[in-house]
Design the sequence.
């Protein structure tokens, strides 16, 4: 598939052919553009289909990049900022006599401490990502510990996800998945997603009993939901 290789958008395009696919479809996700097509479709038809939808694709990619960048490191001159619990924090990197890389979060400031003997500091963004994953899990566990007497079904496991369209989900086996960026949102938003999933462990639907359970776990859940809706990422951010 080389017909559109000189188009800059083509670099972000992945093409997958499926036996089960009946027509061509375009989708935008965090990795770029995904075009799925039936196996019998020719390269030329794919090319035409892509060119027909090129404007739409370009616009959607721009929107996706904007949403993603809200959660990434923001640079302002020499200074760098990172979104944590709904507020932007100045990032300060220091060499210190610590045994391993540590991140401390205090008064709108994120201090990243590096052991003095470290040869390379590595990618700051990757370190911050690892840290927010841990924090998302930790905050959820703290909430569960604090409220364990009120929770009807305790989850068997909490795992981190980077789902493209979901802030949270759960399985009938009691595994709750939470998007790793939840710690970047205001605390009420994280709490709401967690309570939503905990309520699903009791009611696997969105019926009135389910919402009653959400309200019982978190009386101000609507406020949490509002905070969540302010950040339209991941795509559609369903629960
Ligand atoms: Zn749900």
Sequence:
């Amino acid at each position: 598939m080389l017909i559109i290789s000189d188009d800059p958008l083509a670099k972000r395009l992945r093409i997958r052919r499926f036996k089960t696919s009946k027509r061509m479809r375009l989708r935008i996700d965090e990795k770029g553009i995904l075009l799925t097509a039936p196996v019998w479709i020719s390269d030329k038809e794919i090319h035409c289909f892509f060119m027909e939808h090129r404007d739409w694709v370009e616009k959607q990619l721009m929107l996706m990049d904007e949403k993603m960048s809200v959660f990434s490191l923001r640079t302002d001159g020499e200074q760098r900022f990172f979104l944590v619990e709904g507020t932007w924090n100045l990032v300060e990197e220091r060499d210190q006599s610590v045994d391993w890389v540590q991140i401390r979060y205090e008064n709108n400031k994120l201090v990243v401490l590096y052991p003095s003997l470290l040869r390379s500091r590595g990618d700051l963004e990757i370190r911050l990502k690892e840290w927010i994953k841990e924090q998302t899990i930790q905050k959820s566990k703290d909430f569960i510990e604090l409220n364990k007497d009120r929770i009807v079904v305790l989850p068997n496991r909490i795992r981190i996800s980077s789902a493209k369209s979901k802030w949270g989900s759960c399985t009938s086996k009691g595994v709750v998945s939470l998007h790793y960026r939840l710690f970047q949102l205001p605390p009420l938003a994280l709490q709401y997603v967690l309570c939503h999933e905990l309520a699903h462990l009791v009611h696997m639907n969105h019926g009135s009993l389910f919402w009653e359970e959400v309200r019982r776990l978190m009386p101000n859940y609507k406020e949490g939901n509002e905070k969540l809706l302010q950040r339209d990422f991941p795509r559609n951010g369903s629960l």
Notes: Residues 8-69 form one domain. The CA atoms of residues 189 and 224 lie 4 Å apart.
